[in-house]
Design a protein that fits this description.
The chain is mostly helical and 166 residues long. It has two domains: 68 residues, no CATH class; 54 residues, no CATH class. The chain has nine helices and no strands. Helix 6 crosses helix 8.
């Protein structure tokens, strides 16, 4: 690893960042860069911040390679795409539109919408292959709740015969 040397302006900006940031990652990285500039060893810095030495090396390397960026951007992680939310914005209006209709109207042999029936509806009528969990999350976002019907037969009290005169 090359020797890390900060300019006066970089050092002042890092000290200001330490005073003002609420981001713990930026705070740790700023401290690491300052301590390395003060001449501390990578192993000591890693131990003080409770991270691996490799993390400190990575932060230092990224900081020195990104000279053209603003100082805060030099400390941040690179953008990560991750898995995009594929159906979140798509299925909400579709479910909202169909939830108040009768499933029989759409060709299903049931009188109430269930999650598996909604998954099948989206596949049949909109060619969307979604998971049951995606439908559950969409229903929660739409604040649609339903309960299974509770079929309770007439419960007789323990004294019903006395009430009838028997």
């Amino acid at each position: 690893m090359a020797e890390l040397t900060l300019t006066g302006r970089e050092r002042a900006t890092l000290l200001e960042l330490i005073d003002t940031t609420a981001d713990a990652r930026l705070l740790r990285r700023a401290y690491a860069i300052l301590w390395l500039d003060d001449g501390e060893l990578v192993t000591e810095v890693a131990e003080q911040l409770n991270v691996s030495r490799q993390s400190v090396y990575n932060w230092c390397e990224r900081f020195t390679q990104r000279q053209a960026l603003p100082l805060v951007q030099r400390l941040r992680d690179a953008g990560r795409a991750g898995r995009p939310a594929t159906v979140q914005g798509i299925i909400d209006p579709l479910l909202d539109r169909v939830i108040d209709t009768n499933p029989r109207h759409w060709g299903y042999r049931t009188t109430v919408w269930t999650v598996p029936v909604l998954v099948q509806y989206l596949a049949d009528h909109h060619q969307l292959l979604v998971s049951a969990q995606s439908v559950r999350l969409a229903l929660a976002r739409l604040k649609i709740h339903w309960k299974r019907p509770r079929h309770r037969l007439a419960l007789r009290s323990a004294t019903w015969q006395q009430a009838k005169g028997g």
